[in-house]
Specification:
505 residues; alpha+beta; five-stranded antiparallel sheet; 19 helices
Length: 505
């Protein structure tokens, strides 16, 4: 599936600026022209500096801050004090005077508002609620309380010393890792050189289509409008992408196994239609909600393009549910999965996906092998032949070429609505078991895309229409009341239901 990696530090940015085997980083996103960059342009040396500036919320060419408002900037913890001790002191003084705490601030409406707000927050957060030393000082002075009577001298001196220290709570961006079934990586790595390049190009085309879908789903921002939060359109996403063809090496002086994947970095900013720069996707929450949709969309596009251009047919794995390339040896896929095998062994039986992700950090001890593409390809072919595989025959059978295996795209690839609904929501399907009786529209869209062995067209709208077809099928779903945020995309909820039909929501 698509992994979403949060980017917080300069080190994180450096990690995702690491190029693949071919050393190519590419600018992506329709929002790039707003900062003088061109989508699809290859990185030059100065572009790494531009990328680092962008992730800091600055103009990539001038370094000037793009955000007019720094609402995400907060006082550093060292510049704050716990509020509860001061509130207790205020309450004691008010009780001694026989009045409510707010009465001590009569004629000072601003300080009364601050006091009331902090009282509510302390009820909610308890002793963990903190406030900038400057604001604490003003509130204490307004009620006639000396701070040294409430806080220790060392604590006060530390807070005053750091009173101007700030931290930005805005997440700079994310890296979405789009990967493929192992058989796609094996096929691409063993194809003749020219054909491999063409296969990798179709993967890039699928990435471009997926980014276009992402712009429609999460390429919005949120603003305050008449006291409420509202969505606002943007000029598009900004970021870069890199291709990686091999897994991390195992430390045995050989290149890593075939593992074709793309790193798609998205900056957490976009230029809104009102001319203001803001964070995207409800501060990234909608990106995480749609990670499975983007993953399914990407893989579905690769499946259709591979069918049309290489005649690649698919067979569904009974263990993973992935649509593997028909004709690629399962034994060879296992041979080329050394790192996954090592992670499974180290994590132990019954380990969760998250456990395995943590264990996989062991591979960070090794850097990517300094190997040319030719060296990798030669190594992979030698290892395949050593496993007893007739590489040329296997590749010819798995990718017979356009015009074969109904690869023209004229044959029926998408089942009729009733059959599609049964594939997606019928008893015994993975989706039915995983959602415990209900699902969101985002989950439904991902399930529909994953159910199609040969994908669909380039348009997100087609996937939306297919999801609506599933909802119209009798006996599977019933609409549920809305719950949670109304700002995000694909939030409609459906109960898995037998005997009642609903229309699209």
């Amino acid at each position: 599936m698509a992994w979403v990696n949060e980017i917080n530090t300069d080190r994180d940015v450096d990690r995702w600026l690491a190029p693949g085997t071919d050393g190519a980083l590419v600018w992506i996103g329709t929002g790039l022209p707003a900062v003088g960059l061109e989508p699809g342009a290859l990185f030059s040396e100065e572009h790494e500096t531009a990328a680092r500036r962008l992730m800091k919320g600055c103009h990539p060419q001038t370094g000037a801050p793009l955000f007019a408002s720094r609402a995400s900037v907060r006082a550093h913890r060292k510049a704050t004090l716990a509020v509860a001790p001061l509130l207790r002191a205020i309450e004691e003084k008010a009780a001694a005077a026989g009045v409510e705490p707010g009465a001590l601030l009569e004629g000072k409406p601003k300080q009364q508002k601050t006091l009331a707000g902090q009282q509510r927050l302390v009820i909610k957060e308890g002793e963990t609620q903190r406030l900038n030393i400057v604001t604490v000082h003003k509130l204490a002075r307004a009620v006639g309380i000396d701070l040294p009577d409430v806080y220790g001298r060392a604590e006060l001196e530390t807070a005053w010393r750091h009173k101007d220290l700030r931290v930005d709570s805005r997440v700079p961006g994310w890296c979405v890792v789009l990967d493929l079934p192992k058989s796609d990586s094996v096929l691409a790595g063993l194809l003749p050189e020219r054909a491999e390049s063409e296969y990798r190009l179709l993967v890039q085309e699928a990435r471009a289509d997926t980014l276009n879908a992402a712009e429609q789903l999460i390429g919005y921002a949120v603003r305050s409008q008449d006291g409420d939060l509202a969505r606002i359109a943007t000029q598009g996403l900004l970021g870069w992408s890199s291709e990686h063809r091999a897994a991390r090496p195992m430390g045995d002086a050989q290149p890593g196994d075939p593992h074709l994947r793309l790193h798609v970095v998205l900056a957490n900013l976009a230029l809104c239609e009102d001319g203001t720069w803001r964070s995207i996707a409800n501060s990234g929450m909608d990106l995480y909600r749609h990670a499975s949709v983007l993953d399914a969309f990407f893989k579905a596009r690769v499946r259709l393009l591979a069918l049309q251009r290489f005649g690649v047919r698919r067979v569904r794995s009974q263990t993973t549910g992935a649509w593997e390339v028909e004709g690629i040896s399962r034994l060879l896929c296992t041979t080329f999965s050394r790192r996954a095998q090592q992670v499974n062994e180290d994590a132990g039986a019954g380990a969760s996906v998250e456990d395995k992700r943590r264990v996989s950090a062991w591979a960070l001890r090794f850097t990517h092998a300094v190997a040319s593409a030719d060296t990798m390809r030669e190594s992979w072919r030698q290892r395949a032949e050593a496993a007893g595989i007739d590489v040329d025959a296997m590749v010819a059978g798995a990718a017979p070429g356009p015009g074969s295996n109904d690869s023209s795209g004229t044959g029926p690839r998408i089942p009729p609505p009733d059959q599609l609904a049964a594939l997606v929501l019928g008893p015994g399907t993975g989706l039915t078991g995983a959602t415990k009786g209900e699902l969101t529209r985002a989950e439904l869209m991902a399930a529909v895309a994953n159910a199609l062995p040969y994908g669909f067209g380039t348009d997100l709208g087609e996937l939306q229409r297919l999801a609506d077809d599933v909802l119209r099928a009798d006996g599977y779903t019933v609409a549920l009341p809305h719950r949670g945020s109304t700002l995000m995309s694909s939030t409609a909820r459906y109960g898995l239901h037998h005997g009642e039909s609903v229309g699209p929501s």
